[in-house]
Amino acid sequence: MPVEIKVKIKEVIQRNYNVKSFRLEIPGILDFQAGQFLLVKLKDDPQLKRYLSISNSPTEERYLEFTKKLTQSNFSKTLDNLKAGDQVTVAYPFGKFILDESSPKIAFLSGGIGITPIRSICKYVVDKNLGSDIVLVYSNRSAKDVIFKEDFDALAKSYPRLKVAYVLSEAELGFKCIVGRIDLQVIKNEVPDYQERKFYLCGPPQMVEGLHKLLVEELGVAKEMVVTENFQGY
User: Fold this and answer.
1) What is the mean pLDDT of residues 115-125?
2) Are 205 and 221 within 8 A, CB to CB?
3) pLDDT by residue (tens digit) across 157-183?
């Protein structure tokens, strides 16, 4: 059952030019599964609330972290002005976008800020050394939009069964990537054993819908092998 608590912000981390992570001091034991999300309420204002993915793993103890792309919404503007020591109200955990540990092979297809629950899951797999074989294909417009690159590069280095492929709309000098978008050919190239994998899709709703259709209708992946989760406030 989700619980609601008022907590202090422990740290604010600038992830890129328009994305910040907010780490919250959580008393006691963290009770959530990697990939789940929380409800964040600001200034006790019923209009200032959003469902946001938890971006840290349960193995990273004593704090909860959510990561938000900052837009021109009132919620984003209010959130952007918060600093360490300020308070927010959170309710958690919610959601079923969680790892099926019985599936030995996993593929994540993600875009933009949709990477947040995937970062949580991958960190959990590596910390627990679960043995899951993982391919992550992560799409963005440009290199400056990529989130958690240092984390994923470090995870892949320490856990050889994690392969990360970056897809950018435009080529960037010095940034190893596939140019274009996640399409049929990219999936065939990066996930050649796609019939053996369970897929997790997270990103803009239109992207998730398109990838789901591509996997099921064009590649013949069974519907039960494709996990998606869209939630209000994405």
Assistant:
1) 97
2) no
3) 999 999 999 999 999 999 999 999 999
* CATH value at residue 83: 2.40.30.10
- Alpha-carbon distances, residue 5 vs 8, 56, 91, 122 (angstroms): 10, 18, 6, 27
User: Which of 63, 94, 125 is the last residue in one of the domains?
Assistant: 94
3-state SS string over 182-196? CCHHHHHHHCCCHHH
For the chain, the straight-line distance linking the first and the last C-alpha, in angstroms and rounded, comes to 22
Q: How many CB atoms lie within 10 A of CB 78?
A: 15
Structural domain boundaries enclosing 75:
3-94
Backbone φ, ψ for residue 51 (5° rounding) = -90, 125
Check whether 233 has a pLDDT greater than 60.
no
139 in the same domain as 41 = no
The C-alpha R_g of the chain, in whole angstroms, comes to 17
3-class secondary-structure state, position 135: strand
Report the 10 Å Cβ neighbour count for 31.
12
Whether the predicted pLDDT of 189 surpasses 90? yes
Distance CA 69, CA 16 (A): 9
